[in-house]
Each structure stands twice: as structure tokens, then as C-alpha cells.
């Protein structure tokens, strides 16, 4: 996670107009120095492009520099134009907040491009190499102006270097603070994950004990099924018994009916038949008792079955 909505670079560094005045005082960057630079602005404008070209003749002779420019997608033409403008601005005589903000931006850009300060600062030598001979030549007849011209340029470039280096440093600090924020975020995420894992572990323990309970229930269900199946077997046997009794009844009833339908049969026959009928009725009553007992057994078993089933599904 990066913190993109930071205040401006100048605000983060506490750079404001009064801070700029304090810097200038520390650097002994006086009104006279400003006037000297302004007096040299025409000379600077006239030589800016050539100095920028020589600046990059040197830089592009280093394969590492070329690689860096290619990596950044920059072109020599674009760099020369930017460098020429940068050089001219050094002589514009107006070193206010707008100027400072621009320098801070360039410093921060080079930090983002991954250009280390030693290359950045070392490049200023190119300006000194190519500007100082021009200044000496300009004041060849005014020797007292040479040193102030050189000093003014050293002071303004030092002013720039301070601002750019501070922007560099801020870039490093912000990167580190983003990394710390990332680590903190990861720690929070890990804590949340740990909590979630703890909850999972608790859930798993509960599930394990539920599984044990479920296993107990399954065992009870098995026992219930076995009881029901025994009961069903008993019921089936009882039903078989009832069927055979019903068959007996049918036979008995048909035996009763036969003498009734044969009114013309003899009294003896009737007597015998009556006796038989009495036996059959007695058997029927017994059969009915057995049926009733079987039905009672059956309903008891069904009751047991029902109780077990309720236990099993609960
Ligand atoms: C005295 C030292 C340097 C100064 C004053 C300087 C100045 C500048 C300026 C003013 C820009 C244009 C920024 C913009 O407005 O977009 C720029 C761009 C750039 N500079 Fe420098 N620079 C210096 C040294 C270096 C060095 C040593 C390197 C590489 C090793 C470098 C690589 C670049 C690159 C890659 C760009 C971007 C080019 C583009 O986007 O087209 N600079 N520089």
C-alpha cells in the first residue's frame, strides 16, 4: 500500500518563503549575487544549448547512463532541451517558491528514476567545466568580476542541490514509510487470518464432537432399525397366523352355512351339524381372541418402532 495523497513536497519538508530566506542567508546568497546572475542571463541564454550538448556528450559516453535513459524512455533531444531550460533558469533572478517547487520536483523525479545522488551531483561538474571558461572570457578585461560571477553560480547551484537532495531524501523516507505501512497492513491481515484460523479450529473441534454425537445417533438408529425389523418379522408371523385363522374361519363358516342351506336334511344330521357348528363357533371365538392378541402385539411393536424412530431422527 502506498500513500499517494501526501501533502506537497515543500509542505512535507517545511519549505516556505521564510525558509527560503533562511537558506539564502546561510548560503550567503545575497542581492549582489542575484544581480550578478541576472547580468549573466544573456550569456547563459546564448550558451545554454551548447552547454547542454556538451553535458550529454559526457553523460552519453557512459553505457550505464545510456541504459538508464533507455529504461526511462528518455531521448537525448528531450534531455538537452530540459537541461538547456534548467540552465537558463539558474540566471532568471527570481528564486522564490515557484522556483523552489520546480527544483524539488526535479529532485523527486530523479529519485523516482532511481538515479543516485552521486551521478546527479557529479553532473554539475559539466556546468562548471563549460561555463567558467566562458565567464572568464567575458570578463577578461574586468578581472574583479570573474570571482563574483563564479561564486554567484556556485551559490545558486548549491541552493538547487540542497533542495534536490532534500527531495531525494524525502523520497527515500516516504518509500520506507510506505514499506512500514505495508508490513503493518500485512501484520493486521495475518492477525485477522490467525483469528479466522482460531475460529476454524474451534468449529472443527465442535464438528468433531458433533460427529461423535452423530455417530452415537447412527448407532441408535441402527439399533432402532434392528428392533423395527424384529418387530416387522413378529408382525409378519402374526399376520401369517391371522391369515391361517381367517382361512379356518372361512371353512367353519362354510360348514355352518351348509346345514342351514340344507333344511331338508334329517334332524340327526342337523344335530351333528349343530354340534360341529358349536365347535366351530368356539374355534372362531378363540381365533378372534388370537387375532385380537396379535393385533395388540402388533400395535405394541408399532409403538416401540415409533419411539425408536423419533429417537433416531431427533
Ligand atoms: C546536474 C544534474 C542534473 C540535472 C540538473 C538534471 C535535470 C533534469 C531536468 C530538468 C529534467 C526534466 C524534468 C521534467 O521536467 O520532466 C530531467 C529529466 C531527466 N533526467 Fe536529469 N538531470 C541531471 C542529471 C541526470 C542524470 C545524472 C541522469 C541519469 C543518470 C538523468 C536522467 C534524467 C532522465 C532519465 C530524465 C527524464 C527524461 C525524460 O523523461 O524524457 N539526469 N533532468
Q: What structural category characterises the helix and strand content?
A: mainly alpha
CATH superfamily of the largest domain: Globins
Question: Cofactors and ligands present?
Answer: protoporphyrin IX containing FE
Provide the domain count.
2
The amount of beta strand, in percent, is under 5%
* Topology-level CATH name of the largest domain: Globin-like
Proper CATH architecture of the largest domain: Orthogonal Bundle
State the end-to-end CA separation: 53 Å
Which residues sit in consecutive blocks of at least 5 with pLDDT less than 50? Answer: 256-264, 301-314
Shape: rod-shaped
What series of H and E elements makes up the topology? Answer: HHHHHHHHHHH
Radius of gyration, CA atoms, in whole angstroms? 56 Å
Number of helices: 11
For the record, what CATH class of the largest domain applies?
Mainly Alpha
The biggest beta sheet reads:
none
